[in-house]
Amino acid sequence: MVNHHYAKWLNSYQWDYFATFRSPYKTNYMTVRNWMKQISSKHPYVYKIFYVTEWDKGDYRNSHTHSLIASNKDITYKEFNNSVSFAVGDWQSVYDNQKITSYVTKFIGRKDINYDLIDFYLDIKNHQKY
Fold first, then answer.
1. Could you say which DSSP state residue 86 is in?
2. Who contacts 43 (Cβ-Cβ below 8 Å, separation ≥6)?
3. What is the pTM of this model?
4. Model confidence at 127: pLDDT above 60
5. What are residue 88's DSSP bridge partners?
């Protein structure tokens, strides 16, 4: 049930993009954190990201990361994909906040599911380096 609470909370934010990230290599918590740093440095107009890393169905050795992205500028798939070192699978504009927040949070509360909300604006405002 904790996932429903996260979905409701995330639905209070306006999200612009939904994306899925992958790597051909084994990833861990710090891998995904480094991806977020990359996004922040390459796309300074991205001001908020929520991500969830979940295990692939049928192959629990591999994972993928779903993300919700809030941006002050339109971003094309090609522009985003060409700027990062990881694979960008799904890339789509968010048209139904409630559906997408429910989808992204579906596994929160289960074992070994990493997730975080990163507000780049607050990090800059508080003079913290992400």
1. S
2. 71, 73, 75, 80, 83
3. 0.88
4. no
5. 21
